[in-house]
Design brief:
8 helices; 13 strands; alpha+beta; six-stranded antiparallel β-sheet
Length: about 350
């Protein structure tokens, strides 16, 4: 809001663009002295640039500096939330075409010490994830299937990494890591399909994990067509039996504390989103799945298990009685503290 006001004063007709809570937020910003209310609108009051208040690398609470160990030169920064995956000890970090080997990650000091490396290898982090449903705010019923929207707590832990050859992709070694788990309270949309419904679409019990995992990856890759986001702005989890739902479940969640509206938009356009997801998988010419359809560059499980054909049948089950109305409810999701 303040960045918009700094470019052009906000007026009453502009307010619906920013959502239903805009009036309350503007009152708060005026009270804090960030904006000034005049008859012609709301104005930015400070001499500095409002855009500098926004971290372009995310909203996860700071950055980790990447420092060349021999010189003390800062070669770049990485968002704190991504540091566990990208600059853990032993990671190969690419910056402006140069490869750097991470010798030490100091989470308390917000520093990763690196040294130049050949660039013949790269690293791929492995992680475990858990999603707990905190509150369900909306649900859409599609026959026996359901699509939900609510708040979740996502707990992830980077547990190891693989060192791979660049040219062949061959795994050279896998090393364990002792990084602590990270928790994120955010907004997610998730869909559930009873196992008996999946069986009627010839998705057998052994196929459910790979089918759900492949559908999750494809849905995350297609969400930018529905919401204004990048696939790295969202995360996901799929399971054959989730303890909070008691059914096969696929989660797609915002990657920012408190939510950023991406999963919420996916819920509101669920029919369009899931039909596009199925089309991308079906139209891809590969046999068993590739980066163009169901493989993900950010998968913490090394893209395993994935079952492309079973994912199509799972999405058929989801869409068999899909609600044609993609905008069922305009009410905002209640906000909670991250």
């Amino acid at each position: 809001l303040v960045a918009a006001a700094a470019e052009l004063p906000l007026t009453e007709p502009d307010l619906p663009l920013f959502g239903s809570t805009t009036g309350m937020l503007l009152d708060t910003l005026v009270a804090r002295g960030a904006l000034r209310r005049r008859p012609s609108g709301w104005y930015w009051t400070r001499p500095d640039r409002a855009g500098d208040l926004v971290n372009l690398r995310g909203t996860d609470g700071g950055t980790v500096r990447i420092v060349e160990a021999s010189t003390g030169r800062v070669i770049g920064t990485v968002e704190t939330g991504a540091a566990h995956r990208t600059v853990h000890e032993g990671a190969v970090y690419l910056h402006r075409g140069a490869a750097w080997l991470v010798r030490e990650l100091d989470l308390d000091g917000g520093t990763a010490l690196v040294e130049p490396t050949s660039g013949d290898t790269y690293t791929q982090a492995r992680e475990t994830s858990e999603v707990r449903v905190l509150a369900t705010h909306r649900s859409r019923i599609w026959g026996a299937a359901r699509v939900h929207l609510g708040h979740v707590q996502v707990t992830t832990q980077v547990t190891s990494y693989q060192l791979r050859e660049v040219l062949s992709g061959r795994v050279l070694t896998e090393e364990r890591l002792g990084l602590p788990p990270r928790s994120l309270r955010t907004v997610a949309t998730w869909w559930t399909v009873p196992e008996e419904v999946l069986a009627s679409f010839e998705v057998t019990a052994p196929e459910i994990p790979g089918a759900a995992h492949a559908a999750e990856h494809a849905a995350i890759g297609l969400l930018p067509l529905i919401a204004t986001c990048d696939r790295w702005d969202v995360g996901g989890l799929s399971t054959a039996l989730h303890p909070d739902t008691g059914q096969p479940t696929v989660f797609v969640h915002d990657g920012y504390p408190g939510g950023a509206g991406f999963a919420e938009r996916g819920f509101r356009a669920a029919g369009t989103w899931l039909r596009a997801t199925r089309s991308v998988i079906a139209d891809c010419g590969c046999e068993t799945g590739c980066p163009s359809c169901v493989q993900s560059p950010k998968c913490g499980n090394g893209n395993h298990p994935l079952d492309k054909q079973a994912a199509l049948r799972l999405l058929d089950a989801m869409l068999s009685e899909a609600d044609p109305d993609d905008e069922p409810d305009g009410r905002p999701v209640p906000r909670i503290a991250p």
